[in-house]
Amino acid sequence: MRKLKKLQPERVFYYFEEISKIPRESYQEKAISDYIIDFGRKLGLETYQDASYNVFLRKKASLGYESSPGIIIQGHLDMIWEKEDDSLHDFSKDSIDLIIDGNKLKANKTTLGADNGIAIAIAMAILEDDSFEHGPLEFLGTTSEEVDLGGALTIDSEILKGSMLINLDSEDESIITVGSAGGIELDITLPITKVYEDLSFSWSIEVKNLSGGHSGVEIHKKKGNANKIISEILSNINFEEEIFLVEISGGSKDNAIPRNASATISSKKDISMTIKNSINKILEKYRSFELNIQVEMIVLDTITKVIDKESFKNYLGLIKNMPTGVNTWIKEYPDIVESSDNLAIVKTSVDSIEIIVSLRSSEVNILKELQDKIINIVEEFGANFKFSAGYPEWRFNSISNLTVFGQEFSHLFRW
């Protein structure tokens, strides 16, 4: 039974519901790619699928419009797989459980996949519709956008014939994207040494149920970062009592604001009340905007093999000084983020604490300034770093043909 049957435009939401049945995490897009290619072949469109599972569909111009400028509609095929802690959803095989909540479309305890599933659905609805006249029309669907734009970087540009590209990478109805930030990932390695200490007590501290969100779309919203919060708790406890860090971890994806984090600590004496007091202070500080935040303390059997004190001190300093969130706003458009970073992932290995930070900016120079700022912090606390291959920004052009057209005829796109 179709859940979205009453939503308009009907065919857009028909296809959105269909693709929501297909698992499509980054690097696992073959099924959704095959589905779109099959769709195109059934319509008699020109189709192409490359080794990265990017898809390309071309529809001939309507009679009399053969010489019109070709339009490329573009979106990406992959989605982020994130779910709430108590969800039993298996992304590898389960359909997204869609829920209509008033005037909002949601998913049951998981990400929805509207970024960029709605672009796929819109493109499919347009391509099957023979009721309107148009010039040459193409759809380009790219892979691994959520991670590294890997699909887009492998495209053979000779396949594309259109002269104007409309990117539909937006979750907002009636919005056409006219610019995008570029980005790069910073991998930080803080060397540690494991030592044995004469300790008597150990605890696990867990930060849970933050609202999280996409670090590109929601970085400007007031959200807690679990990696920041767990380190803040440890700093508060360490200020009051001597503690030893056993391990720490948080976050799951470089493009998701971390919702959960945990740390294991040990001490020479029972400091349970100090831990509880620190937790209560954190809850009081963050509950005004993180309504579902939970912080739990769990008593463990004593662990005596811990991270050396100097490394622990460096870690706390590094995280405390590491920016996360909005760095700058665009001067001409003060409600639009110009640059940001996301303190995304922390994990402990045998000989290091590894940290992943995702940086974004629509301006190359601003991104470089943010990189240098973070590098200075990393080096100050004795950590090593390397940058992954970045992806380019797409700068807004206020005088492009598409931008002018969109401003003049924006009323036509409202459903």
Automatic annotation (TrEMBL):
This is Cytosol non-specific dipeptidase. Keywords: Cobalt, Hydrolase, Metal-binding, Metalloprotease, Protease, Zinc. InterPro entries: Peptidase_M20_dimer (IPR011650), Peptidase_M20C (IPR001160). Its EC number is 3.4.13.18. Its cofactor is Co(2+); Zn(2+). It catalyses: Hydrolysis of dipeptides, preferentially hydrophobic dipeptides including prolyl amino acids. SUPFAM superfamilies: Zn-dependent exopeptidases. Residues 205-282 form the Peptidase M20 dimerisation domain.
